[in-house]
Amino acid sequence: MQMAINRSRLKTLMLPIAMVCGALFAPWMGYVTFLSPYLIFTMLFITYCKLKISDFKPNRFEVALLATQMALAAAAYALTFFWNRTLAEGVFICFFIPTATAAPVITAMLGGSISRVATYSLMCNAVVAVAGPVVLAAIGEHSDMTFLDSFKMILMQVFPLIVAPLVLALILRYSVPRLHSKIVNMQQLSFYLWAVSLFIVVGSCVSFAINNWTPESTVTMVLLALGALVACLVQFKIGRIIGGRFGDRVSGGQGLGQKNTVLAVWLALAYMNPMASIAPAAYVAWQNSINSWQLMRHERNIRSKKVERPE
């Protein structure tokens, strides 16, 4: 019993430890960054093995989240543009970018609906893939890409990581059910893969910020980091409020709050003032700090229920 509790406590500390270690080993992160897409693919494949085709049913929940996300992005840009354009671009991209490919993994760990977040992730990424090149070309400061080139680049970055593991999981469900069943029972592996992925992502973002820092940019970088924090807190909070109306606060918060920051950094560099990419880089730390806290609280609640349960 004591060993199980200690293992559970260690698990809740793994994400904060991964973030701290990622920051400490940032100078060497370039050697392992290439592993990130493979880790994300594997995490999603294991998670998606729990789904059936019938689980994907877009409804008012996904529509409400998507409409809210676009409205928040437009409002954030409008409210900050005349004060600081770089800040406006950075905060805008934190709202506009689609749901992180790993969102269903964290949602599953927190007891939310994988199918709802997976459905919203697919919808959101599709909308951003179509609207992104037009919107970003309109508000950005520079772009040497045509609409078709931008569209293809976004598709190549986002869809292989989302669609391929889902298709593979569904094929496996109906073609090799015995193997599929074994993978379904390996859901805990996703958590440890996510910890390794978090180590790499945080380290890469810290390295990015260090390499792009200058004394003149300090104030702007701080404003971008704080703007990302506000965007993160607002989206998690509003997402949970919307989710609560549909009986699933966890899925609402993760769907709206957890973002594909790797794509965001690329979009900011491609279309905006490169300094604006500091905002999504900071968003990585904020969203994973929130997720770490949520996971720790969730694990603590599970432990307390086990202790209170009568023998």
The largest pleated sheet is described as: none
Instruction: Give the helix proportion (percent range).
Output: over 70%
Between the first and last Cα atoms, what is the distance in angstroms? 13 Å
Q: What is the 3D form?
A: globular
How much strand? Answer: under 5%
| N to C succession of SSEs | HHHHHHHHHHHHH
Uncertain stretches: 1-5
Mean pLDDT: 81
Helix-strand layout with pairing:
Blueprint: H1 2-24, H2 36-48, H3 60-80, H4 85-96, H5 103-109, H6 114-139, H7 147-175, H8 177-184, H9 188-211, H10 218-245, H11 249-257, H12 261-271, H13 278-308
Helix pairs in contact: 1-9, 1-13, 2-7, 2-9, 3-4, 3-6, 3-10, 4-10, 4-12, 4-13, 5-6, 5-11, 6-7, 6-11, 7-8, 9-13, 10-11, 10-13, 12-13
Can you describe what's shown?
- By secondary structure, this protein is an all-alpha fold.
- It is 78% helix and 0% strand.
- α1 (2-24) packs parallel to α9 (188-211), α4 (85-96) packs across α13 (278-308) and α6 (114-139) packs antiparallel against α7 (147-175).
- The chain is globular and about 60 Å long.
- The protein starts with a helix and ends with a helix.
- Residues 1-5 have low confidence and may be disordered.
